[in-house]
Structures are given as C-alpha cells and as structure tokens.
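User: Before I run my own analysis I want an independent prediction to cross-check against. Here's the chain; please return only the structure tokens and, at the end, one sentence I can use as a sanity check.
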Amino acid sequence: MAITNNPLFQQVSGTVGGMIVYKKYYDKTVISKKPDMSRRVLSEKQLESNERMRLATIYAKHLYRTDEDKIKARIRLKLPAHKSLFHALVKEHLDQHMQMPLEEVEKTFMEDLP
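Assistant: Structure tokens:
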C-alpha cells in the first residue's frame, strides 16, 4: 500500500486494469491491490438484508417506470424536487416491511406492486 500526495493522483479513484485500486482518504490517495472477495462468507442477517434491499429496489423501479407514476409517488410522499425519489421509494418499502419476516415480505411483495 502506498500513500501519495502527488498532484498527478489527487483526482484519481477507482480500479485500473482490474488489479490496482486508487482510494481517497481525506487529502491522501492510497494505492493498493484489488481485494480478493471470492472467499467472503455472508451471515444469515447479511443475506436477509441483501434480499430486502433487492425487493425494495424492484419496488422502486416499478414505480419509477413512467413520468406519471413518478409524479404520483412524489406527491404521495410529499417529496421536494431536490430530493431523490428513487431513494425515497426504497426507504418507504424498507420502512413499511422492517418488522415483517422476510418470508411474509416476499409473499406479499406482488400485492404491493400497483
């Protein structure tokens, strides 16, 4: 891992060639190898959280299809123009189904979609 204040790297971040990663930490740029995530094992809670997020994203995409649906959702949520509607829809779905078991959320998921 190398830390640099070199002006050439001040605005650099991301992956190069799938092997080198440039990361920004405050005023420093860190250069490191790309982490190997192949052996990562997710816990049950992480898997459940990922599935809830997947369902919430599908819900938001469904309501985000047409301009008419977007306007209706923005009015229903009383969301100002400068706020992200997509993020608000994802949050709405997660908040509504936070206390429900995942199996029940999946079962009633199709009913939520208008």
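Sanity check: The chain has two domains: 2-33, 44-112.
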